[in-house]
Amino acid sequence: MSGITPYLTIADGRARDAVAFYQDAFGAELVETHDADDGKRLMHAHLRLNGGELMLSDDFPEFHGGQSSAAPGGARLHLSVDDADAVWNRAVAVGAEVTMPLADDQFWGDRYGHIRDPFGQSWSIGAPIRKG
């Protein structure tokens, strides 16, 4: 891995569901997973996504003084893709909520929009607009 690697904490014991969503919505490749000792939660998952890396786990409040470390919507993850509509439509079809419609009128020249996945994480999807 290089650069920054987002690490998401998924609330409510839904990390496995998040892995499946990211695979279905964004074509993520599962690199590895590690189960927690309780046999229920996911201690760690590593995904490859759009040329980058993403890691996530279920919430483990017992490791954080009894407090949840999940922060839904606390950050946005950006995917720069060749075909924003294809990725967008796939994500929405498997449960993403549109929070900013996909549109061509971005000042920097991308077709761009925001979604929220079923686990409270915000995503932006953008693709250069090809003219001519």
Describe the structure.
The protein is built from two helices and eight strands, in the order βαββββαβββ. It has 132 residues and is α/β, with parallel strands linked by helices. It has one domain: 2,3-Dihydroxybiphenyl 1,2-Dioxygenase, domain 1 (Roll), CATH 3.10.180. The strands form two sheets. It has a four-stranded mixed β-sheet with strand order 1-4-3-2, covered by helices on one side. The protein has a four-stranded mixed β-sheet with strand order 5-8-7-6, covered by helices on one side. Strand 2 and strand 3 form a beta hairpin. The termini are far apart. The model has no long low-confidence stretch (mean pLDDT 89).
Please outline the helices and strands:
Blueprint: E1 7-10, H1 15-26, E2 29-35, E3 42-49, E4 52-58, E5 76-80, H2 84-93, E6 97-103, E7 110-116, E8 122-128
Parallel strand pairs: 1-4, 5-8
Antiparallel strand pairs: 2-3, 3-4, 6-7, 7-8
Helix pairs in contact: 1-2
Which key terms come to mind for this protein?
VOC family protein, alpha/beta, 132 residues, 4-stranded mixed β-sheet, Glyas_Bleomycin-R_OHBP_Dase, VOC_core, Glyas_Fos-R_dOase_dom, 2,3-Dihydroxybiphenyl 1,2-Dioxygenase, domain 1
